[in-house]
Amino acid sequence: MLATLAALQLLALAQVTAPTPVGPGDATGPDATAAATTAAPAKPAKAAERPALPSLQSAEPLRGTTAVFGWAGWSSFGAAWVVGLTPVDDLGAVADFDWGKTELRLGGIYRRPFGEAGGWDFAGRIGLAWYANFGSSWIYSGNHSDRGLEASPALVLSRRAGGGVFSVAGELPMTVTVRYNSGFLFTPRLASAYEMPLVEGMTVGARASLGYRAGAGDAPLKDGRGELQFLVLAGWQLL
């Protein structure tokens, strides 16, 4: 009888599963969860995206939105309708009338950012327009009527400042005139602008530029002269 009881006791002990050793990395339960939470490095917060500022002067794209722009001052007024085709590509239509020289430009504009360095955004901008001079001499006595095509490549730098955006642009407008014996105009200029939000989706600002106009052939006002421009700006984001 004693032998039988001893055999049954050994059989029961053999069926009990031996405890599994727990290592430092195998802990479970509330204490383990707390330890894992404490040990896990915190993920850095994602930087907040800059609020959109509709601007035609800066290097910042419209990010897929649509906006209209207007300007007026010495010595021109005009408007533009620009669409963000992609988050980085802007394409639009521009109309500008220089009332001092009675020069009209109707065409398109394209802008694309290059990148960012030292807190500055960089972009390329180019315009292509039909050019018409109506020949008024009420300010410039040597003016005469003409027409042609104009290309206006530009390099733009901008950065956020004071709640708005400050920009600097180097522009190289080149005009080929085709009336009479044809001619050529070259008007490099340096421009700076500042735009700030007025209400949500609307900006106001100002732009000043200093340039030099020279030409050849029968182009109007081809004699070398300095040019100063000051414009008041406005922009509205539509979509």
Summarize the structure.
The chain is 10% helix and 54% strand. The termini are far apart.
Order of helices and strands: HHEEEEEEEEEEEE
Structural class, from helix and strand content?
mainly beta
Proportion in helices = 10-25%
Termini, distance in Å? 95 Å
Query: For the CA atoms, what is the radius of gyration?
Result: 34 Å
At the fold tier of CATH, the topology name is Lipocalin
What general form does the structure show? elongated
Total of helices: 2
Average pLDDT metric: 86
The number of distinct β-strands equals 12
CATH homology superfamily: OPCA outer membrane adhesin/invasin
Q: Provide the low-confidence segments as ranges.
A: 1-8, 10-14, 16-30, 32-47
The amount of beta strand, in percent, is: over 45%
Total domains: 1
Identify the CATH class.
Mainly Beta
Biggest sheet record: 12 strands, antiparallel
- Label the CATH architecture: Beta Barrel
